[in-house]
Amino acid sequence: MKRITIYDVAKEADVSLATVSRVINDSSVVREDTRIRVQQAIEKLGYKPNAIAQGLALSKTTTISIVMSEKLFGYNGKILNGLMDVAKIYNYNIMFHTTSRGITRMQDVIESIIKTRTDGVILFNDNFSEDELEVLQEYQIPMVVVGSKIGDTKLENVGNTYVDFEKMAYDLVNSYFEKGVEDITLLEDRLNASMLAELKKGVDKAFAERGKVFTQYVPYDESFKSSYVFLTEHFKKHAPSKLVIASRDSQAYAVLNACQEAGYKIPEDIELVCVNNNKYLTMTKPHISAYNIPEYDIGAVSMRLLTKMLVHDPSIKDNISIEMGYSFIPRGTTK
Amino acid sequence: MKRITIYDVAKEADVSLATVSRVINDSSVVREDTRIRVQQAIEKLGYKPNAIAQGLALSKTTTISIVMSEKLFGYNGKILNGLMDVAKIYNYNIMFHTTSRGITRMQDVIESIIKTRTDGVILFNDNFSEDELEVLQEYQIPMVVVGSKIGDTKLENVGNTYVDFEKMAYDLVNSYFEKGVEDITLLEDRLNASMLAELKKGVDKAFAERGKVFTQYVPYDESFKSSYVFLTEHFKKHAPSKLVIASRDSQAYAVLNACQEAGYKIPEDIELVCVNNNKYLTMTKPHISAYNIPEYDIGAVSMRLLTKMLVHDPSIKDNISIEMGYSFIPRGTTK
DNA sequence: CAGAAAAATGTAAGCGATTTCAAAATAAAA
DNA sequence: TTTTATTTTGAAATCGCTTACATTTTTCTG
User: Between A219 and which of A74, A188, A326, B252 could a Cys-Cys bridge form, CB atoms 3.0 to 4.6 Å apart?
Assistant: First the structure.
């Protein structure tokens, strides 16, 4: 089965390939009647331009790579939706890469990004190291890092969309200080280390400003099947504090269930806030208070930013960072 | 910044491009000392073969497209993990496509699959129509459909991995018949229509064999924010039956919560089984009994099958279907 | 209606690899 | 040491498209 090429179309329409190419890319120079003739030939033969050949000719693949850690997979659905929708609008194809501890190292991913001559990359911020990314610089592949803030960097051509988790935690803790509550716990989350680091910074800062040291940081051992099991056990032994900050739904569940078993009342004795809103938080009794993060928008904005970088939009100079807002949704676990 | 091409390497190593190409593809013909010389040149220049050019020359992109419905996103994380891991092993790149009601129609996806000359496709079974897929046939792009069973098809070159949901439902219902329970409800799930259709077939069949007609099929209105809210309300009004089969975690939660509010005891008065196991089912009280589906394996097996089809493995003739097992995990919501 | 200007089309050179076939280098045989 | 067989290498065509530049066609002017 011979595949239809631009040459076949040219012959069918009795023009040169150049002309066919022009109508494909709707160049304005071609005359209306020949455009129609070519269009019909394309239709008739069912011709579909070969993006690979185009890519080679143009040194441009209209393809964007998304890189995320395998474990974050189920959690970033909405961000992905935002990314995909905007990519679709601008007609970009998406290459998908995952990193995982054992099988796929970041380096391999970078390697294949380069080999496939991807135009740009969206990278989920998960403790990557700058050194690994340097190769991308050599190839001048623009990148936007999504999730949490990246600090100063020597890298060029990198955008960033983030939620200010540090501020979120800082404000939250302060608001409880003002209510006279100082007994506060933050739960570790291995799934999203960079987010957690920001949260912790915020909490530490708030404590430091009051001349206190924050200590109630509950880590959990990864050998446990899930943080849920671990935390539930933990809180049966150690009474939780007045305010518990969870970073994920399962942690919030754990706190809720452990407290109920231990006979603590929520929110009377203990208040609970989850840093990531999702539907599961409204399936408990009481519903769990949470911060809502505009996930879809994060995806959409990130991709839009990248597309601008790709066409060297004049409004994009230097590395640009976009802060995404968030809102608190009070529910049954806070007073 | 000029990118390094095979030509640069050739000059550096003082050989022709042909030779460089040979060492890249470890052709056995090249002599050891020149191989080393070329290798060094590659190293020195940091040369990375251009996959696009290779793709053009070979009519082969070593790229596989994954197509799934946007809404299924968060639910298929583990399958995706399996797919990605195996793709990595065989060095395939992944193009990712989502379909969604408004923005992205299947046809557009197919169009870009063809344009990008993807070697094969993994399609999540979600009520696609055969007609849409016919174009892929013309281009002889192999495909494996994952999720649920596809019936007879005139399509060629399509593999299938599935869980026999029909049998699952059939056996489940029968086992309750044997215990004397005939009052059974199945909850609709719009998220995974093809799975639900299979389940319903199984239930219907079991009822039909006993000369009964199955009626307790609870649909839900999509205008509701989530099935959870709807079902919770529903069950406050209509008492659930002796056995409720939920197809998703949130549905199971709804049943559990509604029953608790209405004063029914689980599992004494009502038993509850969820068709898809996940971690959330062990965060309730009682834990929810469920069928465990080998999601990771489904992904891995599907991708492996596709890779075999791509190299025309002789063990693959005609369309091949692989049934994946499942197991029941009894927990607190069944007696 | 000739000549100039503008618009439309075609020619041919890339883009960066692979691969066939011929030529050169090396090894084996006489 | 020739001659012949075998390995290695290189030259050049090819994959399917874009585009600068040349050429042809059309439109406009006077």
Answer: A188
